[in-house]
Write a structure and sequence with these properties.
The chain has 360 residues and is mainly β. It is built from two helices and 16 strands. The protein has a single domain, classed as Porin, CATH 2.40.160.40. The strands form two sheets. A twelve-stranded antiparallel barrel has the order 1-2-3-5-6-7-8-10-11-14-15-16. Strands 9-12-13 form a three-stranded antiparallel β-sheet, with no helix packed on it. The longest helix is centred in the N-terminal third of the chain and has 15 residues.
């Protein structure tokens, strides 16, 4: 009798409890804020409790030539014609990047990005006995980046036609890529691999503002990159025939202005102007002085204002999938001095790329 009473009580209790809600991990959960499909309506953060995985691919191609009289034989100056030095150069830079962003709260998110770099460099001195091209190839892990964004402002009108957002962020570059191409003995054409990282820590402090007006969105970004450790061990030292040299990569001020037009619900077009000012870069012998490289010489034309133009086509299939494709071209002002060290001295040329993201 007692066991029947206990059984009846347990059944009654289970019936009286509300049913436990079950939802697929793919569906929005109760503490996630709604994410609109329209690109112009989105704030600059991914949203509370949302997790975004994305895959980037970019392919950069640059053409110029090397300076034979320069101590850094891997460098070139854009302004000189190929025929002057009889030393044409070609640089292909492919980059795959895996990223993850997590919306910690409505005003805060964290992200990390892991790049894989494949590069190829050739000049017309890199030929075999029959005149065929013998380029240098290299692939490996690039400099991992991680950071955070904080949303200081977010407003939206009731009809959703007007909204804005302001974020501030911190990005950290970690020296995980290969910064040394190997032995210099035998000449620069014997360098066996491609540099895939800057070899130095970097901190980027940035802010971004976005204003939506109906189907238009204006976005402005500004940042300062600080390279505090000042150590990149790859430069040529032509007395002892080795690469162990010291480089102060200098700091960087960067900004961009972008306009997005949402001409369809799932399709948008964006144009960006990217501006980049770099302070002078110094190089010299490896020493134990502090601060590092305080007596290093300034590399001529290593500072200046550079400008690129980028066009992007953005497709948002739904709230979970997005695909972007872009094309970027150097408008002017870029002077290369450490080629092919793309992270510190970006080459002048064109870049094509795309991004696929999954949000859940």
């Amino acid at each position: 009798m007692r066991s029947s009473s206990i059984t009846f009580a347990v059944v009654a209790l289970l019936v009286s409890l509300p049913a436990v809600a079950s939802a697929s991990w793919w569906q929005p959960h109760t503490r996630q804020e709604a994410i609109p499909i329209a690109e112009v309506e989105r704030p600059l953060l991914v949203g509370k409790s949302w997790l975004v995985f994305d895959l980037d691919f970019s392919w950069k191609q640059s053409r110029s030539h090397f300076l034979a009289e320069n101590a850094a034989n891997v460098g070139f100056t854009e302004g000189l014609h190929f025929e002057k030095e009889k030393n044409e150069g070609q640089w292909n830079y492919r980059r795959w990047e895996i990223g993850m962003t997590w919306g910690v709260s409505r005003s805060f998110d964290l992200y990390a990005r892991i790049p894989i770099v494949w590069g190829s460099v050739w000049n017309n001195r890199m030929v075999d006995d029959e005149g065929g091209r013998v380029p240098i190839h290299g692939a490996g892990l690039g400099d991992v980046q991680a950071g955070l964004n904080f949303q200081a402002l977010r407003t939206q009108s009731e009809d959703g036609r007007f909204s804005n957002a302001l974020t501030v962020g911190l990005d950290m570059r970690m020296p995980t890529g290969a910064e040394s191409p190997g032995s210099y003995i035998g000449g620069p054409n014997n360098v066996p691999t491609i540099i895939t990282g800057a070899g130095t820590w970097g901190w980027d402090f940035n802010a971004r503002f976005k204003q939506q007006i109906a189907i238009l969105a204006l976005e402005v970004g500004l940042g300062f990159e600080w390279n505090p450790t000042n150590t990149v061990m790859y430069l040529v030292e032509d007395v002892e025939n080795q690469f162990n040299q010291h480089l102060d990569a200098g700091d960087r001020i960067h900004g961009d202005v972008g306009v997005t037009v949402q001409f369809f619900e799932n399709l948008a077009l964006r144009a960006d102007v990217l501006i980049d000012y770099r302070t002078p870069t110094r190089w010299g012998a490896t020493v134990n002085s502090f601060p590092a490289c305080k007596e290093c010489e300034v590399i001529p034309n290593s500072s200046g204002l550079w400008m690129d133009l980028r066009g992007t086509l953005m497709a948002d299939f739904d709230r979970h999938f997005a695909l972007n494709g872009y094309f970027e071209y150097t408008l002017g002002g870029r002077r290369n001095f450490l080629w092919p060290l793309e992270d510190i001295s970006p080459s002048r040329g064109w870049t094509a790329g795309g991004n696929f993201s999954v949000r859940f």
